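Thread: "does anyone have the structure for this chain?"

Original post by V.I.:
We have the sequence but no experimental structure in hand. Need at least a predicted one for the grant figures.
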Amino acid sequence: MKTQLHRVILALVAAISLAACDASVNEPVVIEDGTKDATGRSTVNGSIRVGDDVTVTSGTFRSVNGSARIGSRAVVPSVTLVNGPITVGDDSETGSLATVNGDIQVGTGTRVNEGIESVNGAVSLLAGAAVTGGVVTVNGRITLDGATVNGDVENVNGGMTLTGVAVINGSLAVRRPRGVNTADQVPVIAIGPEATITGSLTFEREVDLQLHRSAKVGEIIGATPEYIDE
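Reply from O.Q.:
Generated one for you, tokens below.
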């Protein structure tokens, strides 16, 4: 059975073909502030810019070779990129967020309803952000700064940081790398005070697990934590 990380790679590579069909070329996609009943669109070699207080009622935003920036208090469907970062402002709501090469940052109070996936890029969730459907990366650090994930959190390289009142209502896992020499790249998993992980913590490779004594976590499999008091 394929792991969730393998499915991420296959799904994002498939998005390359989808984005290239019926898409503008060398043109940005721009939705102005305050626009209602907008439609998602695709572009090749162009950025995606969605303003503040925008409501997108149908379609998906896709780009090959371009970044995506979603404003504050916006409601948009899924965003899928091949090469580019995704930034979502505060108090917005989205479907899935996915990119092959690029970081993903989700602003305070924003809800992501269908999960976050990245192959090469960090994922950062700011205070009050909430994700349903899990967070998966292959190469990139995952940071939950007072955010909540209702689902599993997984990566291979890059490590994880949980600060503030971070909550994972699911499991945390660091998967075994395939075909990569990671002898000098031990991921740091830092779980701070007041953090909560309701499920198990599974480590298929060597990690540096730093666990605050006040954190609440499930069973730890494959690593011995270094307990932190400060």
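V.I.: this helps a lot. The longest strand covers residues 79-83.
O.Q.: and Helices lie at 4-20.
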